[in-house]
Amino acid sequence: MRILDRYVIREVLLPFVIGLLVFTFILIIPFLIQYAETFIAKGVDTTVVLRIMATLLPQALALSIPAALLIALLIGFGRLSADREFVAMQACGVSVARLLRPVGVIAVAGWAATSYIMLVALPDANQTFREITFSILASRAEGEVKPRTFFEGFPDLVIYVRDVPPTGGWNDVFMADSRPGQVPAVYLARHGRVILDRDRRTVEMALDQGTRHVVNEDGTYGVFAFERLVLSVNPDSVFPRTGPQKGDPEMTIAELRARAKEIEARGESAHNQVMAIHRKFAIPVACLVFGVIGLALGATNRRDGKLGSFVFGLGGFFAYYIPLNLEIGRAHV
Hints:
Layout: H1 3-41, H2 46-55, H3 57-82, H4 85-91, H5 100-143, E1 157-163, E2 170-177, E3 185-197, E4 202-215, E5 221-233, H6 253-265, H7 271-298, H8 305-331
């Protein structure tokens, strides 16, 4: 690379890093509000929460890299324009077309990074997020019950146990059941534990060697003995209602094509899945388009400098992000 190429890349690199950090933080805030509060409320370690948040970075980077690239080109070239360096370049015979070489290097690097995120990193990170989240919530669902302490973490259930053995489960269980639509009951059991099925998203309470105590509508008192009893619990108490379900943007191309075939086999339209495949290629191409736009808008003889370029870049970012976000939202309705 020639001196001119390295000089242009250096001018663009710092604004790109700053823009990348700012836009990534802005885009990841909704995920922080949605998930971090839930985990912190459940007492999950801070290091684990940070690890979970790191798996959400690819979702933000997929949009922040093209936006930061546009901002960086406009700010970098805006500084060159404000200092009249473009005039000096043109006086030395350097045309605007010549600057396509360093801009092309930057844009291709952004395209490659965004393509990797969309095709590989995003599906993998989403899967890792689900595994970590479900493992934490599953392990804490049973472990949150402390011996000789009333536990009300499960909706409409109150649990009291005498002992929690190291091998898991509970000994000498007392449970009051006031779930709506059922007769209030009290359960006494020798052993109990929580059974979770992450694939089916079900939560069950298993009680062994116990009795069920109820007061019937006619005022009579009933006792029923059982060897094993399994009660279904609202899964939202363990698996968040807005949990990381694997949607179209988080699927690989092969998974999207398989889902599209399943939908078409039912006689329905697979438009959303086809559009999701197109977005995996269209969003990285935005880096190449923004490279040309950044050079065209930044390589002028304007004297408004960085501020004017930043305003142009901010407008370009919103013009890029808002319609794309609305389109993704409509695709999931």
